[in-house]
Fold Trichome birefringence-like N-terminal domain-containing protein.
Amino acid sequence: MAYFCVSGFSPILMLIFLVGLKNAKSCLGDCNLYEGSWIFDSSYPLYDSDKCPFPIEKTYDCKSNGRPDTQYLKYRWQPTGCDLPRFNGQDFLKRYQGKSILFVGDSLSRDQYFSFLCLLSTSVPNLKTNLTEVGFISTFTIPEYELKVVLDRNVLLVDLVDTAEGRILDLDSVKQDAGNWTGFDLMIFNTFHWWFDRPPHQPWDYFKIGNKLYKDFDRLEAFEIAVGTWGKWVDANVDTSKTKVFFQGFSPDHYDPAAWGQPKANKCVNQTTPILGSKYPGQYPTREMTALKRALSKIKKPVTLLDITGLSLLRKDGHPSIYGYSGAKE
Ligand SMILES: *[C@@H]1O[C@H](CO)[C@@H](O)[C@H](O)[C@H]1NC(C)=O
Ligand SMILES: *[C@@H]1O[C@H](CO)[C@@H](O)[C@H](O)[C@H]1NC(C)=O
Ligand SMILES: *[C@@H]1O[C@H](CO)[C@@H](O)[C@H](O)[C@H]1NC(C)=O
């Protein structure tokens, strides 16, 4: 899965809100925000994870889990063609007063969600906040600004149905959960890594496509079909004049240290710096990205891809690794 240490890696969100800014287009021109490099910035991090008003899930809380280095907290994303304004929480709260934001997806969404809540909570002194969790849904509110930020933990987006025959992953439907996805001003979805899980981790027994059940199926193709199904839901159900819709691309793992010239290292254990420069020396997941872009291109309504793959590839230092919950995670 794609875990990142909390507070080491919140720029994805800043991109979202920049893209969401009304005049972002005119101030950033046609700059490609996703092409650039990580720059050391001594004024970072933007928040201290100890100051979050709620406990951070252990998986992401590298600092409390004993990670000794801190340099990984001090990198800022610098696009090649333009400068990003520094995230300003107070300004954000004013602009999003009375609004609601929804995240839906796997650990990438969860990670970004909690980083974002910390970022907002610590932006104004003594801000009152409220986080509640019911089932798979977390709801965070800042009453003073009537702002609501919700997370729906849904790792595959499409329906997973328990039947007498087994657990069926229905690639043609999102109706099981989609009732939770209405009434928001901004929505950010993602799914990826779970599509490639194998037993015993994979949470389904059969794929269902049309009226047919399959014991297995090409995983990338299944992923593409599912994103397409979600896209059809957007086309049929979302009023994009009221709701902005984003899809977060995926964030690859860092299992193979030979990719950055350290064949003797153990995955990303003890990596303390990003890859500098803008080019990842290892392989870029072109096939996967092509499948995702193809699925998104069939959606008629405006959906913005947050193309984070390249920028997160450079962050071999961003994962909890041995400072995550259960030891060596990528
Ligand atoms: C937080 O929100 C929950 C759910 O809406 C509510 O029941 C609870 O009273 C709130 N807590 C505070 C301190 O406002
Ligand atoms: C919301 O999602 C939960 C699963 O997390 C599901 O059981 C429930 O039916 C959904 N509610 C709506 C209104 O779709
Ligand atoms: C990582 O660093 C820790 C603490 O310095 C050390 O004990 C461990 O051997 C290192 N692991 C690897 C794979 O380099």
